[in-house]
Amino acid sequence: MTAAVRDPQPLSVWAVSDGRAGIANQVLGLAEAVARLAPAEILVKTLRYAPVFDRWPTALRLWPDAMLAKDSDRIVAPWPDIWIAAGRATLPHSRRMRARGGGRTLVVQLQDPGDVSAFDLVIAPEHDSVSGVNTLSLLGSTNRVTHERLTRDAAAWATRLADLPHPRVAALIGGRSKTHNLTPERAAALARDLRGVVEASGGSLLLSLSRRTPDAARRILSDQLRDLPGHIYDGTRAGVAGENPYFAFLDAADHILVTEDSVNMAAEAAVTGKPVHVLAMDRLRPGGKFDLFHRSLRDKGITRPFTGGLPQWVYPPLDETARAAQKVLDVFNVKFPDRSVST
Fold first, then answer.
1. Are residues 93 and 68 in the same domain?
2. What pLDDT digit, counting tens, does each position of 75-114 carry?
């Protein structure tokens, strides 16, 4: 595929979210993938509602501009060529963007927005079972992981990781959500499993804890694993390892272990083509969408449940973000033939 050529102006693409890392990475990842196919200028927008309106249901946010917090970005003209948004906070604005843009803005919504009729394109995970002529289903979620980015971020960590013994085990740990929990007991069990596999293999540990990791679990994992060869990142800028080494860990790892609570982490790990082992957590809701997602990954030979060892397997790296970006431009060309781009 050759790069698109668009003359005279690049596409204006807005990446709109509520600022949560997992959501922001999805919209920015898709925007960046569009920009790899066609010249584009990306503007990141973060929407936050004033505290009094923050928990209001979407249907009651009838004046969304006036309800935004003072530190929120504003949604004002000039309007973009392509609007890419995700998260419940963006829905009132996304649903108005067709009219606001005078029919000249392609409105793309990620995840399941409920009624899909207000959008030009809805891109959602397969396990959300969203259907319609204006929808695209992905295995997992869009993300910012590319081989070029992994290589670039790894360069900053090269000297710190160079002497670590193989196999290098990257463990990506999530936390409490609506469907899962990471109790102290589960954290202690994870710590025993991680210690066991690293010591048995003679390798090293690259441990990344997320912002959702409960404090008690964070302390247990850090305290019980800090003597192993490797690095620990505790999920904050002031963490044990300093700046976030997430992408460097993915690049350096021989095996990647991810907790089952995060679609994003599993999808990002699958971009590498490396073995992805899924770590069990405490389930708050049995069954459901997460089981469908993980079953799809297993069926495609991408992941296996972690069983205490490090078996090796291969699969074609997952690149759903590129597929989504191509779809965005295809729909743009159909809707706006006078401004079409070639890829």
1. yes
2. 999 999 999 999 999 999 999 999 999 999 999 999 999 9
Report the distance separating Cα 143 and Cα 265, nearest Å: 9
What distance in Å separates the CA atoms of residue 85 and residue 191, rounded to the nearest whole number? 37
CA angle (267 as vertex; 320, 329 as ends), nearest 5 = 20
The type of residue at 106 is L
Does residue 210 sit in helix, strand or coil? coil
Domain that holds residue 75: 11-139+320-339
CA dist., res. 91 & res. 94, Å (int): 5
- pTM, to two decimals: 0.88
Query: Per the domain annotation, does 315 fall within a domain?
Result: no
Asked whether 299 and 334 are in contact (CB, 8 A), the reply is: no
Give, in order, the Cα–Cα distances in Å from 219 to each of 2, 116, 242, 257, 309: 49, 43, 17, 19, 25
